[in-house]
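Regression report. Comparing outputs from two consecutive submissions.

Submission 1:
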Amino acid sequence: MSTAIQFRGKPKAASWASAAIIVAAILLGVAHLWSSPSSPIAIFPVDGDTVRHQGQIYRLVGFDTPERGNKARCEDERRRAEAATDRLRQLIAGGDTRLQRVACACRPGEEGTNRCNYGRLCGALTIGGRDVGEILIGEGLAHRYVCSGTRCPPRQRWC
């Protein structure tokens, strides 16, 4: 079932409000698809190694996936990034997800700020008890990427 919204003439505030309600309903429906059936949490993939949960953005640790959009260095990287993001969505949709916040490789006091990890927190995500990074690495959609102390290694290239 699909619903088309058509505005004629100059839009009125009520029309915009109706559109906003419909968009919110659609987004809530998508959130439900990514919720774990065994857990009340909703996890939203941002890209292959980043998720959003309860208003916080988490960089998943232990692996790195290609960059999306204009951050990609070549078309192959862009294609691989979409594949990794799609696979993460599939894994999360399968349920039994667990997101655990872990310490980032940041200087003291900088975790969660723009001075470290672009303001993202760090997390470990498991699906059915398996680390999502290990799954994506095994499928060729990610590289191992392990930080230590307050330093991270250079990223491997995808192009």
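Submission 2:
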Amino acid sequence: MWKTTRQASRATAHLALTAAMAFGLYLFITVLIIAAVGTLAVVGAWMLPETALLVRRIAGVRRRQVAAWTGREIPEAYSPVTGPLRQRLRTVTRDPNAYTDLRWLGAQYLYSPLVLLAVPLWPLGLVIDGIWCGALRRKAFVLPLITRLADREARWSEALLSPSPEARLAARVAELTQTRAGAIAAHGAELRRIERDLHDGTQARLVALSMRIGLAKRAYEHDPETARQMLDDAQDLTEEALTELRHVVRGIHPPILTDRGLVGAVRALAAGSGLQVTVRVDGLDDPALRAPAAVEAAAYFVVAEALTNAAKHSGSPRASVHLTRLSRGLDVVIRDEGSGGADESGGTGLTGIRRRVAALDGTVTVTSPVGGPTLIAVELPCVW
């Protein structure tokens, strides 16, 4: 009885929220009518995209309510409403999910009265079932009905609010377009960095090396000692040029990844970070078990950037790195116990992390409240 009562209480709370939203939607009819009339009269056409955005927010609230009851998230697949008025009007009139929301609104107006009538049933059902179960020793029958009603309502809302295949496809195309643009921007920045490093470092040293060898050749016959000194300098320049080249190559694909694998490379990063870093590994102990090279490189650079940020900005001597093999990919979590308040617009490297991860269709979650701690969680999809 207690379990049934508790479940019915949750169902009643869900139905009460549904009823409250239903009441608000009846008031919202006025806004819809004004927007429709204004759009037909042309002078109020600006109201249509604003009303569509308001409907999106209302539908978003309902999605979260249903997800809280069912435990299943309802995805959104809206087209972004931006640009001048004509573009905004074209977007909201062609967005398949806008019509999904309108269909849900129409259904809400039809079945909301049933929900409003069902809300008072819980206290009445509690009394009836209390007498029925207590006096007659029978199984409760009213409270389960309330729970089933909440289940039915949630399934209806979930079915009505789920984006259509066309909307999912359009959202996916928009997402891939955005990540592709980010990947191209990151690739361009990386090429400019490599070009700058080669031009300012390696190329300058190779030019100086060529000049030293040329001078040594001229001085060899009449001043062997000077020529020998020039050749020694040339050898030093050669070693410096090789060091510069190793630095450039390390920025493209760190050789340590090839030599030691991701786990060994991350442990080396932790040891050289200047922090007390704890590295935890789950499911990656087998050296033969390797993620694709692009995934390993992305994970390596994420850890390197995060530890660099922690050393520069966190103010804490401690950090941790957790690598986890998932069935669907690789999970990387970096945490520091510093002051928090990481700002992605402040040049902390988080934008670069997001672009690098987005290029592999991964996700980045940054949690950094003021006062700390800062946690960067990255999931990189891959096939093992």
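Expected: both submissions complete independently.
Actual: both completed, but the second showed a warning that disappeared on reload.
Relevant detail on submission 2: The mean pLDDT is 79.
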